[in-house]
Structure formats: structure tokens, C-alpha cells
Design brief:
There is one protein chain. The longest helix is centred in the C-terminal third of the chain and has 26 residues. Helix content is 63%, strand content 8%. The radius of gyration is 15 Å and the shape is globular. By secondary structure, it is mainly alpha-helical. A hairpin with a 3-residue loop joins strand 1 and strand 2.
């Protein structure tokens, strides 16, 4: 969700600073702990549909727009998108391993 919002900010602002957050602490909050993992997968499915719709109509120049992060510095949306895809696949695999282990 954060990557999606960062991407949209970079499309509408000049090189915005992408805020960081503590993923480990977010995972301790009730919406992570109390809801089943299937809810996270559904949220990802809906989010990806929105992201895909956004990406489908972008001109190539849009991917050269930039955002800044505390860790990576200035990166193009092309690089940010590649990192998002990798990050998402990693988290999705973690969820699927957990779900398969529950059976």
C-alpha cells in the first residue's frame, strides 16, 4: 500500500520524500494480528488491480519521474516499480508458506 501511495505521489509531486515506517511494529497492531492472512491477500488483489490500472495508461516518460527515500536516495519510478514487484512477491510467498503450513 505504501509503495502504491509513494508511486502516486511521485506522479503528482516533484520528487517527493517517501516516508519510512517500522514494518515490524506495524505487524504488532491488531489489524495484522487478529485478522486471517486471507484478508491480506484480498487487500493485495484489490490494490494490485488499482495499481495495474494506473500503470497501464502511463506514458514512458512517467517512469522517469523520481521520488526520494532515506535509504536509496533519489530513484526513478521505473526502479521503484521493480523494487515493489520484488518486495510484493517476497511478502506474498511468506503468506502462502504460512497458509500452506496451517493445513
Amino acid at each position: 500500500m505504501n509503495a502504491y501511495l509513494r508511486f502516486k505521489r511521485a506522479l503528482t509531486e516533484e520528487e517527493p520524500l517517501a516516508s519510512s515506517y517500522r514494518e515490524d511494529l506495524w505487524a504488532e497492531l491488531p489489524d495484522y494480528r487478529k485478522l486471517p492472512p486471507e484478508h491480506s491477500l484480498l487487500l493485495l488483489e484489490i490494490l494490485h488491480a488499482r495499481f495495474a490500472t494506473l500503470l497501464a495508461d502511463l506514458e514512458p516518460a512517467a517512469f522517469r519521474r523520481k521520488l526520494r527515500t532515506q535509504v536509496l536516495g533519489s530513484v526513478t519510478l521505473d526502479v521503484a516499480l521493480q523494487r515493489f514487484v520484488w518486495h510484493n512477491r517476497n511478502h506474498r510467498a511468506q503468506i502462502e508458506v504460512y497458509l500452506n503450513g496451517r493445513d
